[in-house]
Amino acid sequence: MIFKLAYKNIIGAGLRTWLNIFILSVAYFSIIALQGFFVGWSEDATREIKDWHIASGQFWQQTYDPYDPFTLDESHAEIPAELNKQIVGGNAVPILLSPASIYPKGRMKSILLKGIDPNQKLLKIPTEFLNNDTEELGAIIGSRTAKSAELNVGDFVTLRWRDANGAWDATDVKINHIFETTVLAIDTNTLWIPLAKMQQMLELDNEATKIVMKYVPENLNYRNWEFKDEAFLLQDLKNMIQAKTVGSSIMYLLLLFMAGIAIFDTQILSIFRRRKEMGTMMALGMTRKKIIGLFTLEGSLHAVLAIFVGAVYGIPLLSYFEKVGLNFGASGDDYGISGLTDTLYPQYGVKLVLGTIILVLITVTIVSYLPSRKIARLKPTDALRGKMTK
Q1: How would DSSP label each residue in 161-185?
Q2: Taking the model in full, what pTM does it have?
Q3: Which of 41, 217, 256, 304 has the fewest CB atoms found within 10 Å of its own CB?
Q4: Structure letter (DSSP) for residue 72
Q5: What angle do CA 178, 48, 329 make, to 5 degrees?
């Protein structure tokens, strides 16, 4: 009975009710849409970084620090015999790193020289282009490096490096292929050459800086090597997404605040205008507790009806964005973020949708209840005379 009465009261309020419902539906839609884009970005970026860069984990030479370029000269160690078996079986890929310089069109450019097995299949890096039948040293680079160095496929560029004994040497390198990737660590200022050739150039036979693993190995303890699991290697990405999510939460709070203010004002006005009605209900035997429940339920029904109104325009829009994505007109290069393309594809899970509905329902119920507490002090005689009890 109370539910039917509450429903008739809010529908009878006309335009004011539908404006409140529309504002709440926008809050539902905005929160689900924005969170969906963050979830989609997280999933896409994680998949790209795993496919191109980290796989299931990496062994790092114990002094290797990707944020300290001064450690690179000493960041190499002999590959353990047990891991060599994994490499032969295709379950691991050794990579050797060294600082170097190239001289495109007479300009000097510092780069990170990386050696990798041309026949590896574990990472998506197109290393098959490192194989050639000539004596020329072939290399592959990403599109960002190619653009900054003004290099094209077939160009020759002078490469200068320092070997393990500190002696400088140089040779010409032919650009065999330019690839596209969203993972900046694979592309930016990086030149890839065959691992065996790089080990020979640096006089570091059977040595590497890191070893990418297809599976997490049972034995994680090798002398001079430390295993970095997936959680560690993805920590920077997770921190960045978490920071962006916190920033977007401010928008959610603003939307909920606007919706809450609308509901709160509606409740205040309703209680003020319906004093005689409340006095009549009390005179007929309805307790103050039930009247408070009636007004709280009326406010909460706005949030319930907003679910259906939001579904009318929200489901088609969210489905459209999920299918074609949303082009932001900028890629990860503009923000220095790996795994971010110019088009984001959102992902909406049941947890996200239900969590948003519950959050809005609880917020609206609390906002509806707060002004209704005033009814607890209302005397029936004052209410029947159209007065509020002080």
Answers
A1: EE-TTS-EEEEEEEEEEEE--S-HH
A2: 0.76
A3: 304
A4: G
A5: 75
